[in-house]
Structures
1.
Amino acid sequence: MQHFLDIHRTDPAELRAMIDAARRMKAARGGRPHGAPDDLQPLAGRMVALIFEKPSTRTRVSFDVGIRQMGGETMVLSGREMQLGHGETIADTARVLSRYVDAIMIRTFEEATLEEMAEFATVPVINGLTNRTHPCQIMADVMTYEEHRGPITGRKVVWSGDGNNVCASWLHAAGQFGFDFTFTGPPTLDPEAEWIAFARARGVRVAVERDPFRAVEDADLVVTDTWFSMHDPESARERRHNQLRPYQVNEALMARAKPDALFMHCLPAHRNDEVTSAVMDGPHSVVWDEAENRLHAQKAILRWCLGV
Ligand code: CP
Ligand code: NVA
């Protein structure tokens, strides 16, 4: 059994194998209804706990549906309603859950919670987003890019906006899959230096460019995310909006990227803040495929974790 905690902590060959498996499993479904089971039922007889300390639409539904397609069962738990939210330690929770379920997916605030869960669980633990990273999302994003445009290796990905948890996992992917990454945003919202250093140490070009129009020149993919993440303090909302407004992804910005550049957003989007509706609903956008591919990518991650 193996945990899936972060892209930078997972072997690149294994990441590649997971993306390829996700594409094969998607193809094998042959477009049948999402509620229909897969021919292969590798999770038959298995139970997966899905723990949420923050809201979710995609992560919750895509894990739940994907596990059921593979013959498994799920239990969706809210951190607040568990004893976890009332003083029981994460370590004790991990020990107990490991006696009941076959895998644990957790969406939490502090990375330390995920770490403690992984340290004390004797079943695989999957990171469903922390304040610092969102690896399942970027596995789906890499899959989506490659579905549309072929290998992501050697391409130029530009992130415009807040250097947040989703941006962090993109930097990890840049290092592991071998593509160039440009961040454009205000200096106060730069990605963590540690993640930039990780990608650079793996030999890819990472640029920080304050001018969004210069940043997107030659971009194969433009990505953004909310200006205000679930862990950000309400008091910062207005300041962030003011700082990030120049980094909105709109038609003028997309026009400066390569003509066949794609646009991605992990969603939920705040239309006409970080991205205009014209871009979200326009010809560059692959956001709905991106959302669907959470399902397929996570199924491959689960099979890798469980070795099934
Ligand atoms: N992108 C993503 O993780 O969405 P949810 O917050 O809806 O799970
Ligand atoms: N950066 C966002 C991503 C949501 C999927 C957040 O953490 O709220």
2.
Amino acid sequence: MTPYGLDVVIPCYNEEDALPVTLPRILSYLETLQSDPRLALGHWRVILVDDGSRDRTWRIIEDHGRAGRVVGLKLSRNFGHQNAMLAGLTYASADAIITMDCDLQDDINTIEAMLLSYQDGFDLVLGVRSSRASDTFFKKGTARLYYSLLTLFGVNIIEDHADYRLMSQRALRALLAHHEVNLFLRGIIPAIGFKTSIIPYVRQARELGCSKYTLGKMLALAIDGITSFSVLPLRMIALFGIAVFLVSSVTGLWVLVERFVHSATVVSGWASTMLPLLALGGLQILSIGILGEYIGKIYLETKRRPRFIVETTTGQTC
Ligand code: UDP
Ligand code: MG
């Protein structure tokens, strides 16, 4: 096979503890792969995106940028993991592109199998966690709940595939043709098609530094995942509206019959008044909240604001 180029895109946010250890590991691993004739790996680069870190992350990237293999992009502020990854992807020009995190929780040795799949003609090679043993009880539980919710809402997503994947250049072009501001890359991936293969790997616990995905960021990503790919919550509101309408029509009819046919004044008890009042009030507010969530998304999408802003770069960006 003729040699092909590889770009590895890695978003980094406040990673001064992890990066000095993991980056040399990544670089030397890629060098080893290049010396393996089976893989036919030609030119490769590592594109590191500093997602508005407040620590020494950018300094570390700049130091490596001088050495040749490393390209650095510094975003003007923290845009979030998905947008940082997108920023790196727009700079990726190689035949094959891999995205991964900088903490090496995702087994780096999987890259070899990814490249072999790429050589076999796969445009998308997805790393899928075969075990969640290293995750906390909370993370495991919320992940299961989330995947069941996505299935319920009809969102097509590959379970336990995060953002560790290889894309061919044409798959990347297809991905970049999606211009949504509310970015949920792992939801777009199954939608773009192409020949896809899956590679299982065991996810490790984070050894260096701490998780940069706060509960807030995780929740925002989870909501983006549902609202960007499913309108079922809106449809459920409509169905609920129809059900309430039917029930109230029947009740209304009953009240009219009682009043005019039986000449009775219906005196209902406290419970039968309060319970529907509270239940309907709560459900109405919840429904308005769901509507608001979608309207908010439309608002953000129509403004077409940039999804990331690059402040400066280092290394060979093209
Ligand atoms: N990250 C980022 N921007 C953010 C949060 C995280 O670029 O706002 C990066 C982070 O540096 C890491 C990757 O995204 O390389 C995944 O984050 P992390 O390992 O903290 O998440 P977890 O593995 O705990 O889900
Ligand atoms: Mg991590």
3.
Amino acid sequence: MKYLLFLVLAIHALLGCESRQVAAEDQAVEITKERLDYALAIHGGAGVIRRKNMTEEYEAEVREILAKALEIGENTLKSGQPAEQAVIAVISYLEDMPQFNAGKGAVFTYEGTNELDASIMRGKDLSAGAVSGVTGVKHPIQLAQKVMDESVHVMLSGIGAQQFAEEQGLEIVDPSYFHTERRHESWKKARAKADAKPQLSENGKFGTVGCVAMDQAGHLAAGTSTGGMTLKRWGRIGDAPVIGAGTYADDRSCAVSATGHGEYFIRYAVAHDVAARMLHGNKTLAQAGDEVIQQELKKAGGDGGIISVDRTGNIHMPFNTLGMYRGFVTPTNRGVAIFDDETF
Ligand code: ASP
């Protein structure tokens, strides 16, 4: 079992960017029907992530944060809590980390504000919650969970979402809390250009965060949180809070969290498409993910990737960019990676 999982992860990591040219069938790995006790995967965004553009200190810092996030998620699952609790714990932690484009450290809109999007979905009963354009809620993922469990709605936005957060007793912060110098500098540079238009964070890095998990009872959950695109305007909403695009979970197939150029992920209903290919097309997790990310999306010009876990605890993390901050943990194995040539 342990070796099979390792094989799945190692093959995909080894193939790296070359795997993007390979047909999904060639990457397919026979998976066991035996279920792991728990499994969890995380991402911190995909994009033009090159070693030469990153200092050793920064790389070490980010790897440490990803490892810590995995530890938080694993402890939550080991204590017997449901998958969505692990997702919330992991994403809340990452929302506090200014290195990522979610919560504190979110990118700036055209007007120089931070507008946050997040969503969560539970695979057991297909319940879901999402928020978009919130400016004063410290942990948007926790608000998404409140929408899922404490409201009769699926998606709330802007001022109304914030009012609901207050009613639910969530931590409210001054919008300046989300301001970080690094993102502000990027914003200033981007804004100064004559053709200032929305872009996917600095140097093509995305920086959104996400988590998928399978708990000890075998249930799945997925969540995603982001500041969206630098210079986004007119209340632009990306894929992260759109159920079926940036986030999806169904115990019958898999849980998926995406990162990338949101407009493509919405149009191709990426997260749901992966689940649907498993459910209706009998594809494995790896086949379904590769078809969507390496074929459909790539053909269309949509940059990005996903993390995914199926109901037996297999993990697949395909991306069609130069890198994706990512990591996974199971009872027998764990790993963190950034670049496309990394093995676990
Ligand atoms: N998907 C996000 C968006 O388009 C961006 C990202 O993944 O970093 O808003």
4.
Amino acid sequence: MKKIAFVFPVYNEEGNLEILHKEVKLACEKAQVTYEMIFVNNGSCDNSLEIIKKFKHSDSHVGYVNLSRNFGHQGALCAGLTKVRADAVITMDADLEHPPSLIPEMIQLWQEGYDVVYTTKENHHLPFFKYKLTQFYYWLLSKLSGFTFHFGQSDFRLIDNKVLQALLLMPEYHKFLRAQITWLGFRQKGLSYHIGQRITGLSKFSFKNLFSFGLDGIFGFSHYPLRLISLTGFILAGFSLLYMLKEILIPFFLKITNIDPNIELPPGWLTLAGAVFFMGSFQLIALGIIGEYIARIFDQTKNRPNFVIKDMDLSQ
Ligand code: UDP
Ligand code: MG
């Protein structure tokens, strides 16, 4: 019988774990597969780890990886993925927003031959502005990278073991799993779901977290921002030349050749100040964009791991 592994990143989810454990178990029984559950405790400061250890005592399918601190959502997923011993793995959040009821269908599609079954949210709990911004982000990321990223895509997905092995060989420090898996290719199929309700706790992703995660996607998967700088530079240089021709060179020419001796030459300081401010701010933006890439090269060359394991106890 085929074996499915589950990886759950857990950061202060004490109120959701019991139901998650029970529902995933039921879904696996329904799908008639053997399974292992890997709970990755990501530096929780509530009782999450104690609850997971309790599951481990009474259920041989359960194992856990306890990280030395919080390594972020992607860090916890990576830690769990390195410990999988199964034919396929499903990653899902521990807060019940990823419905376990979808598991049998995901497994079914995998058994039909799909290597990746990804999911997209049909509804959302986002305020209007955040919703529009996220929608625009996925559109932009698709345009810049040349790959198709679906709006509402989450890290609730099934991947076959061969995709997992290829994924684990990707050495990037700034992980953006949804884009890395899209980049890998293989036979992929999407399913949509209605986002479930968190029983307790709040989302841990602040706007700042989302912003930096979003930048990882863009700067990790596209060189276009760098090209955009050169392109903007060329366009601005063209406009500046035209402007200088019209406002300065032509009047000078007309004056010194006496074609139009009364022509007014433009007051210098105003145009100069405008041009200096404009070019100054453009150069700062350009430096910032180059800085984003350099920061990523810096992080990569340090070669630090994405997570550190304090202790673990996997299922039998
Ligand atoms: N999570 C984590 N580390 C973090 C933030 C979140 O391990 O720093 C876990 C969290 O416990 C949950 C999943 O990642 O299982 C998704 O987090 P959350 O619900 O806060 O994100 P959202 O659904 O709002 O994107
Ligand atoms: Mg959530």
